[in-house]
Write a structure and sequence with these properties.
Strand content: 15-25%
Radius of gyration: 17 Å
Shape: globular
Order of helices and strands: EEEEHEHEHEHEEEEHEHEHEH
Helix content: 25-40%
Strand order of the largest sheet: 1-14-13-12-8-7-6-5-2-3-4
Number of strands: 14
Largest sheet: 11 strands, mixed
Length: 257
C-alpha cells in the first residue's frame, strides 16, 4: 500500500524546502519556502523514532556533504542519499551508512541515457542493484514527461515511457520521481503522472511534488492502486507548513502496516 516517505533536503548545509523549478546556479532565482533551525540529524532521529524507512536525503548543490553525513550517521541503514552521486562516490556513501544511493544527472551526461555510466555505477556497488535508486525527476512536455537534470533545469531526451521504465528496472531497486513543475508549490499532485507511474513501474516508486493535504496520500493510493509512495515537503508542519501534520503521516503509515 501507498506509504509516506520522508525527506531531508539540504541546500548550503541547511535543511530547506524550496520551489524546485527555481533551483539554478543563480542565487537570485531561488525561492525558499522554509529554512529549518533544526539540524539534519534532528530529522533523521525523528524519522528513526517513528519507523519511517526509505526517506531520502537530497544534496541540492555544493557544501552539503557534512550535513548529509550527519543525517546518515544518526540513522545508519535507514536513509537514501542523492544529489551529485557518481560511480566514484557512490560506494563512499554506502560505507558512511546510506541504505541506498540515488542517481540522476550522472546518467544523462549529454542529455541522453549513458548505459556505460549506469553499468559503472552498478559495478561500483558490487553489482548490487538493491543499493541503487534512479531518480527520474521530470517536467511535462506536450503530452508526456521528460527527465530533467542539472537541478531540474535541463530537459533530456529520456521520456517517462513503459519501454524506458522497463529498461531501467533491470538495473535498480527503486525509482524516485520529483514532478519538477509541482515541486514546492503546494498546489496539488500531478495525478496523471501518478497514474502513469503505477501503470509502468513494477518496482517501488516514490512520487514527490505538490502534495498539500493528508488526503493526497489517499488520492495517490487510489490512483495507483497502492503502488506509488508519496513524499510531502513544504506543506508539512515540521518544515514550516500548515497544511499537513507530520503525526498524521506517521499514523497513515501505521494504518497501512
Amino acid at each position: 500500500m501507498t506509504k509516506f516517505r520522508p525527506c531531508i533536503d539540504l541546500h548550503a548545509g541547511k535543511v530547506k524546502q524550496i520551489v524546485g523549478g527555481t533551483l539554478t546556479d543563480l542565487q537570485s532565482t531561488l525561492q525558499t519556502n522554509y529554512v529549518s533551525a533544526h539540524s539534519p540529524e534532528h530529522y533523521a532521529r525523528l524519522y528513526r523514532e517513528n519507523h519511517l524507512r526509505g526517506g531520502h536525503v537530497i544534496l541540492l548543490g555544493p557544501n552539503n556533504e557534512d550535513a548529509a553525513s550527519s543525517a546518515i550517521e544518526a540513522w545508519p541503514g535507514g536513509l537514501q542519499v542523492g544529489g551529485g552521486i557518481t560511480d566514484e562516490n557512490a560506494p563512499t556513501w554506502i560505507r558512511r551508512g546510506a541504505e541506498k544511493v540515488i542517481i540522476t544527472s550522472f546518467l544523462f551526461p549529454q542529455g541522453d541515457l549513458s548505459q556505460s555510466r549506469l553499468d559503472a555505477c552498478l559495478q561500483a556497488l558490487s553489482n548490487d542493484k538493491d543499493k541503487l535508486v534512479i531518480d527520474l525527476s521530470c517536467r511535462r512536455k506536450d503530452n508526456t514527461w521528460v527527465v530533467t537534470t542539472n537541478k531540474w533545469q535541463t530537459l533530456t531526451s529520456f521520456e517517462i515511457s513503459q519501454d524506458n521504465i522497463a529498461l531501467l528496472e533491470r538495473h535498480c531497486s527503486e525509482f524516485l520521481i520529483h514532478a519538477a513543475d509541482n515541486e514546492g508549490l503546494q498546489r496539488g499532485i500531478d495525478e496523471a503522472l501518478v497514474q502513469r507511474l503505477a501503470e509502468y513501474c513494477t518496482i517501488p516508486v516514490t512520487y514527490a511534488g505538490g502534495a498539500n493535504s493528508i488526503t493526497d496520500l489517499q488520492r495517490v493510493a487510489t490512483l495507483s492502486n497502492g503502488k506509488v509512495d508519496v513524499t510531502i515537503g513544504s506543506a508539512l508542519d515540521i518544515f514550516g507548513g500548515s497544511l499537513v501534520k507530520f503525526e498524521e503521516c506517521v499514523q497513515w503509515n501505521k494504518a497501512q502496516s
